[in-house]
């Protein structure tokens, strides 16, 4: 057994992504000595932040990037729609109100924004896109934190928490130099969910979990979350709920990132491996529906489906890093997908026959729909009749899980008896289930992380001063 080294600091931040860095910067600006421990090596630092593109923020007027106002009430309506009301109403309102400060805060922290992407995203008014993507945004936050004097250790996983009567005392950290005991007067838990822990996912999903692909880091295994729950912290969220999108089935099991996500569903139809459609591909705007498709595919046989479209859709969406499967006829496309050609053709022809012509427009809920078809396609329905024909095979791509720790407005974790912990704070995916009971709204994961990261960091520093 290696000898355990010991150090002391004011605030220990466990995690290395958006929420963790926002907490570290905020605590340091309030005068606290801060140590960040990140389980991943430096190259893979940042968890799922590495793969993000934007954050959603309420604002009263547009600017050089955001194309118009996005009032708090509209943001709230959007959140209620995607969650079906499954959210803590107080924390939802709090998150949205605090999001109005994120543009200025991020800019002051060195983050730069760019004009929004087009296509199916429709986010130019509601979301701020990071110039250079999530990794550039993350690099800016790390630079700011280090320039402020925040200490950062990589390859350093928290393996044991010393918590007594709801108060944090210390953490045992596994580092390349050996075990390290960190004593601190406050701790911020910001180490993400358990989406990379297939065994844990299997507890809720059964054997289906074996066919899940993990869009982000393989380091988000939920170790910190498990330790907090075992120590008497109150859980929140349905363990079967998660941010799950349809991603290219040819993606690697871990860390495929944003380039494997497919945004072309509204341009075609989606079939399972029995050549049956199973959901309305044109139900609503893509940013409000893209995160339901992973769960939908998870419920299909063998957890696989196929997005089918024709030449009219090419160039209208951001493609996968893998090329679409192409064929001159529907029958040949089915054969390439190893699907029953007769069933495949019958489903596409049945869809084509049900299409009601209208004015196709992805910027609005248009009048291109189907009639007499179950499930319907409510908008953006066009016949798949222009060769060549294309398809993408897709599997559930899990971004992050919603089971987490319950918090209050101060980002303090609540214990099982409902008391706020003395000095234990949480931010990011590890507490996102407070706001996201189910469903997802594009960019809100970054919003939750940044809002509660700032609150947690400031609260931890305030606790240290007092």
TrEMBL record:
The record's section on PANTHER family has: FAD-DEPENDENT OXIDOREDUCTASE 2 FAD BINDING DOMAIN-CONTAINING PROTEIN, FUMARATE REDUCTASE
Print the organism lineage. Answer: Bacteria, Pseudomonadati, Pseudomonadota, Alphaproteobacteria, Rhodobacterales
- Give all residue intervals belonging to the FAD-dependent oxidoreductase 2 FAD-binding domain: 10-444
Query: Which Pfam families does the UniProt entry name for this protein?
Result: FAD_binding_2
**Record's superkingdom?**
Bacteria
Q: Which GO terms describe its molecular function?
A: oxidoreductase activity
SUPFAM superfamilies in the record: FAD/NAD(P)-binding domain (SSF51905), Succinate dehydrogenase/fumarate reductase flavoprotein, catalytic domain (SSF56425)
Name of the protein this chain belongs to: FAD-dependent tricarballylate dehydrogenase TcuA
Needed co-factor(s) = FAD
**Is Iron-sulfur one of the keywords?**
no
Would I find Oxidoreductase among this entry's keywords? yes
| NCBIfam families named among the record's database cross-references | CobZ_N-term, PRK08274.1
InterPro entries, sorted: CobZ, FAD-dep_OxRdtase_2_FAD-bd, FAD-oxidoreductase_2, FAD/NAD-bd_sf, Succ_DH/fumarate_Rdtase_cat_sf
Q: Which UniProt keywords apply?
A: FAD, Flavoprotein, Oxidoreductase
């Amino acid at each position: 057994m290696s000898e355990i080294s010991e150090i002391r600091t004011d605030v220990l931040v466990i995690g290395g992504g958006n929420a963790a860095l926002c907490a570290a910067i905020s605590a340091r600006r309030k005068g606290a000595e801060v140590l960040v421990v990140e389980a991943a090596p430096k190259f893979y630092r940042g968890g799922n932040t590495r793969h993000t593109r934007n954050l959603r923020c309420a604002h009263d007027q547009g600017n050089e990037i955001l194309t118009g106002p996005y009032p708090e009430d509209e943001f709230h309506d959007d959140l209620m729609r995607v969650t079906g009301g499954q959210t803590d109403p107080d924390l939802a309102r709090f998150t949205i109100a605090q999001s109005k400060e994120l543009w200025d805060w991020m800019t002051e922290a060195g983050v730069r924004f760019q004009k929004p992407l087009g296509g199916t995203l429709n986010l130019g008014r509601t979301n701020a896109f990071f110039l250079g993507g999530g990794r550039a945004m993350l690099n800016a936050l790390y630079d700011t934190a280090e320039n402020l004097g925040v200490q950062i250790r990589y390859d350093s996983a928290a393996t044991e928490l010393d918590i007594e009567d709801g108060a944090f005392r210390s953490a045992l950290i596994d580092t390349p130099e050996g075990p390290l005991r960190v004593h601190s007067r406050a701790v911020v838990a910001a180490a993400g969910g358990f989406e990379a822990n297939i065994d844990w996912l299997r507890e809720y999903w059964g054997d289906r979990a074996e066919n899940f692909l993990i869009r982000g880091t393989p380091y988000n295994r939920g170790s910190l979350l498990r330790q907090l729950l075992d120590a008497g912290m109150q859980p929140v969220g349905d363990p079967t709920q998660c941010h799950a999108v349809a991603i290219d089935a040819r993606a690697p099991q871990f860390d495929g990132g944003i380039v494997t996500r497919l945004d072309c569903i509204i341009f075609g139809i989606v079939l399972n491996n029995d050549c049956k459609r199973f959901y309305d591909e044109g139900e609503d705007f893509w940013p409000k529906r893209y995160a339901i498709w992973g769960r939908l595919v998870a419920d299909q046989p063998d957890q696989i489906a196929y997005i089918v479209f024709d030449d009219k859709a090419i160039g209208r969406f951001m493609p996968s890093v893998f090329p679409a499967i192409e064929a001159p006829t529907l029958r040949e496309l089915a054969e390439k997908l190893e699907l029953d050609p007769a069933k495949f053709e019958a489903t596409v022809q049945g869809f084509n026959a049900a299409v009601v012509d209208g004015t196709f427009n992805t910027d609005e809920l248009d009048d291109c729909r189907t009639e007499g078809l179950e499930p319907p396609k409510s908008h953006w329905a066009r016949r798949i009749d222009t060769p060549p024909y294309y398809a993408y095979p897709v599997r559930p791509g899990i971004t992050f899980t919603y089971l987490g720790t319950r918090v209050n407005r101060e980002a303090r974790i609540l214990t099982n008896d409902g008391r706020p912990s003395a000095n234990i704070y949480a931010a990011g995916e590890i507490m996102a289930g407070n706001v996201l009971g189910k469903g997802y709204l594009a960019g809100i994961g970054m919003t939750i992380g940044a809002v509660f990261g700032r609150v947690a960091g400031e609260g931890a520093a305030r606790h240290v001063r007092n």
